[in-house]
Amino acid sequence: MPFGDHGGVLSTGGGLVIQGGLDGKLRVFNDQTGALLKEVDVGTAMIAAPMTYRIGEVQYIAIAAGSGGGGWYVWSRDNVAYTRGNANRVLAFRLDGGATPIPPELPPITPIPMPPDSIGTAVDIKTGAALFATNCGHCHANAPRAPLPDLRRSPLLRDAASFLSVVRGGALQERGMPRWDDLLTEEQVRHIHAWLISIARQGYEDERRGAAEAPGKGLVNGHP
Q1: Structural domains of the chain in order of their starting residue, each with its CATH number
Q2: The pTM is what?
């Protein structure tokens, strides 16, 4: 089973061991032999431990499904979130339960759009790279399949004022992006903006070059 991180385990008095995986499969094992007794495809990664409860004479197995926790800056290909997203939800199972709803596959990854012209000096860009690594890189992996947006594809790159309003002004606080006006000056934000444009341009050029060097093979799902 492909595990980038191991899911929690539930053991029952009836001799079962139950564990979810990053591949979106909930598995039930015999606790004596380790034999796989049941596998349920839920289409969502599972890291939390399952739990069990009973209502009347019916016993249920429930699990909080979804990737998360520290270290998840990009979805690896063995994580079902790479293909079906990270649909955080609580799933409950019983012996005579119905089919588990599975999230649809994500659309293909589109190429990086043509970025705006470069801004700033080489020193500005280098400074922006260091500032991003210190303040932003812990969350933003700048990958197309990741928990947070790939900033190389952000329309904010084309509008310095809008970029500043998000980073320092908190324009997207309600969507989870905090304001950074207590840690970053306007000049520092401009340096970060310059660096993001530079990596967007590099990514764009790499994609175009890859497609040109190997027609039909340079991109996988629209991405190198």
Answers
A1: 9-93 (2.40.10), 122-213 (1.10.760.10)
A2: 0.78
